[in-house]
Automatic annotation (TrEMBL):
SMART domains: HOX. This is Pre-B-cell leukemia transcription factor 3b isoform X4. The gene is pbx3b. Its main location: nucleus. Keywords: DNA-binding, Homeobox, Nucleus, Transcription, Transcription regulation. Residues 433-447 have a biased composition (Polar residues). Residues 40-234 form the PBC domain. InterPro entries: HD, Homeobox_CS, Homeodomain-like_sf, KN_HD, PBX_PBC_dom, TALE_homeobox. One of its GO terms (molecular function) is DNA binding. Pfam families: Homeobox_KN (PF05920), PBC (PF03792). Belongs to the TALE/PBX homeobox family. It is found in: Nucleus. Residues 233-296 form the Homeobox domain. Residues 235-297 bind DNA.
Amino acid sequence: MDEQARIMQTLGGVNLSGHPGQGGMTLPPPHGHDGTDVDGRKQDIGDILHQIMTITDQSLDEAQAKKHGLNCHRMKPALFSVLCEIKEKTGLSIRGAQEEEPPDPQLMRLDNMLLAEGVAGPEKGGGAAAAAAAAAASGGAAGDNSIEHSDYRAKLTQIRQIYHTELEKYEQACNEFTTHVMNLLREQSRTRPISPKEIERMVNIIHRKFSSIQMQLKQSTCEAVMILRSRFLDARRKRRNFSKQATEILNEYFYSHLSNPYPSEEAKEELAKKCSITVSQVSNWFGNKRIRYKKNIGKFQEEANLYAAKTAVNAAHAVAAAVQNSQTNSPTTPNSGFQMKDEEFQLDSAENKNTLLTNMFTGSSGSYSLPTPNTGDLFMSMQSLSGDSYQGQVGANVQSQVDTLRHVISQTAGYSDGLGGNAMYSPHSLNANGGWQDATTPSSIISPTEGPGSVHSDTSI
DNA sequence: GCAAATGATTTCAG
DNA sequence: CTGAAATCATTTGC
C-alpha cells in the first residue's frame, strides 16, 4: 500500500489523499478536459488512479462498468507502461533473492527407492521389477514361497495403485489451481501491471507447494513399502530348512572336497540348481558348514565318514566306469559325485578300498600322468592338475576321486593325528592356523620347510 | 518347553 | 567382494 502510494506520487505528483470525493461515486467524468496542458494531464492521471483505488468499494456491476471505462481511457496505455516499468525495477530485487534451487536429495532418494521397488515407473515394468525385487530380497527358492511372493506382489500393487491415484489427484489439483491462478492473474493484468515473469514465479511457488505435498506422499509410500518388505520378505523370519536331498548334495560336495571346500562360482551354481536353492544360499551353507565343521570336527566325524563312504562307492563306480571306458577316454558324468543314491552301502570292505586305490593308480594311468607315489604329493599334484577346472569333466572326476581317495586312505590307515584324535577320519585339510589348505599353493610342495606343528595326514601313510 | 541344529545376517579383515 | 567369525531367529527333535 505504502509503495503503491509512492508510485502514484512519482507518476504525476498527484496527492491522492488530498483528493475530494467519497467512494468514487461523485467522481468527475474522465473525459472532462481536452488534456492538452500539463495540468489537464495531471488531472486525468489523478482521476484514473483514484478510480482504480476506489474500484473495490463499488458493487460488481459498477466496477465492471468502470473497468471498461478505464480500459478505454486514452491515458491508460501510457500509465500502464509506466507502472510496469516501475514494477519491473522493484521486482528485480525480489526475483534476484530466490535463485534456482538444486534438486532435493531427499526427494531424489525417495524417487530412486520407489523406482527400485517398482512402485514408481511404468506400470508393467514396474510390476516385473517389484516381483524381481521381491524374489531377490527373499532369497528363497522359487516356488517354495511363491504364495508369499504373490501376496507380497498383491500388496505392492495395492500400494502402487494408491500411490498413483494420489499422485494423479495431486497433479490434477495442482494443474487446476495453477490454471485458476494464471487466469486470475491474466485477468488482473488488464487492470494492474503483472509481467509474464511474475506469473511464472507464482506458478513456480504453487508447484513447490504441491511438490512438497507430493514428497510427503512419496515418503509415506516408501514407509509402507518398507513395512511390507520387513513383514513379508524378512528371510530370517521365514527360514525353512533345506530339503534332505539338498543337504545331502551339499554335504557330499563338502566332504568330497574337504581339502578345499570352496566351491567355485560355477560349482555353486551347479549345486544351487541341484538343490533348488540360490547361489547365495549355497555360499551361506558352505560358510556355515566350514566354520561349524572346523569348530567341532569331532562332532562331524560320523557325518564325514558317512559321506566319505558314499563318495567312495560313487567314485569306485566312476572309476570302474572310467576304467572300462579308458580306451575311449570318455569320462563319466561330472556330477556323479553328488548323486549317490545307494543308501545301504557300507564301507567296511578293505577290498573295495584297495580296488579303488588300484584302479585309481593303475586303471586310468593312460589318462593321468602320475608323479611319485607319495600320497600327499600325489594328491596335491593331481589337485593342481585338475586345478580350478571343477566344471571340466575330467577335472571334476579327478578332484572328486582324489578327495575320496584321501578319505579312504586315512580310514584304511587308521591314522590318528594330534588335532582330531580320531581314528576313522582326520581333519587333514586344516592347516596349523586353522584354515583350509590352499589347494593352488600347497605348502607340502612349495614350502618344504614346513613347521613341525602343521598337520598333514596326507604325508602320514 | 528346551536344547540342538540350522539358515541368515552382521561385522570385520584382507 | 569374499570369507571368517559371531550372532540372531527360527525349526526340529526330544
